[in-house]
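ok here's NADPH2:quinone reductase:
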Amino acid sequence: MKAYVYGPEGARISDVAQPKPKGTQVLVRVRACGLNRADTGMRKGHAHGAAGGAGTVLGMEWAGEVAELGPDAQGVKIGDRIMGSGGAAFAEYTLADHGRLFRAPSNMNFEEAATLPVALATMHNAVVTVGGVQAGQSVLIQGASSGVGLMAMQIAKLKGAKLVIGSSTDATRRGRLKEYGADLAVDSSDPKWVEEVLKATNGEGVDLIVDQVSGKVASQNLAATKVKGRIVNVGRLGGTHADFNFDLHAARRIDYVGVTFRTRTIEEVREIFEEVRKDIWGAVESRKLQLPIDKVFAFDDIDKAFDHMEANKHLGKIVVTV
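and the structure:
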C-alpha cells in the first residue's frame, strides 16, 4: 500500500505492507487525513512521544471506512464510515483502537470528517474536562486560528462562556476569529494584549486560558488570568522554555495544568473520546461544531500540503485525500 514514510533521506511516499488488526484494533481504509503541527516536526525526524524516526508512517488523524476487525474489536462493523486519531494515518490503510474513533456523521464527507478527531478530543478535554469551563465564565484561547484553536472557541461558546477571547499574530486570521466564537481578538505578539484582556474583564483577568503558544507568553498569561483562575497548557509553538513569574503564579493562586496525548494510556484516550460522544456529539452532528477546510491536496501532493502548512498563512485545516 502507499504510505508517507520518514526515512534517512526525509519523508516520501513509499510502498509498505498493509497492516493487520489485532485485539481491539480496527483496520481503516483511509479516505482523507488532516494535517497537524506535530506532523511537521515528525516529517523532519523529530520524536513525538514514542513515535518518530526512520520507518515511521506519518499522520495523526483520518476519516475512512472499516475494512477489517480485530478479534476483540467492538462497536463498529465492516463498511462503517468512521473518523479517528492515532499514528500512521498518511496511508491507504491504518490501524485504530476501537475506542479511539467516532462514527462519521452522514451529513459530512470524508474531507470534513478528517478535520475533527484531534480538535474535538484535544479541546473538549482541555476546555471542559481539565479547564472546567462554566457558563458565564471568560476564556482566552492562545493560538486560536489553528484548527484546534477554532474548535476550542466553539466549545467554550457551546458550554456557555460569556466572553471568549482568541489570539493570533496574523492580522487577517485575527480578523476572522469572530466567525468561530471570539468576542475579542488580540495579537499575542503585541505587549499590550494583556491590557486588552484586563480591560475586557473589568481588570480581573479571564477564568481560563487554554495555551497553545507558551514560550514568551507564559508569564503574560499569568497576568491575564484572574485570581484562582486556570491555565491549561496544550501546546508550545512559541517555545518550550521561557521566563516564568513564580511569584505572580502564587499571588494569583492559579491552577496551571499541562496536558498531552503522548503520555496517556489507551484507557485514558478511550475515556476522552467517550466524553466527547456523551457531551457534545449532538453539536457535531448538527454541524454547530465544525472546522473550515483551508485547502485539500491529493496524496501524491502531500509535500505541497506540508509546504502550505509551514507557510503559516492558512486558517483552519489542511486535508489530504487518499
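+1. The chain has two domains: 2-116+291-321, 119-258.
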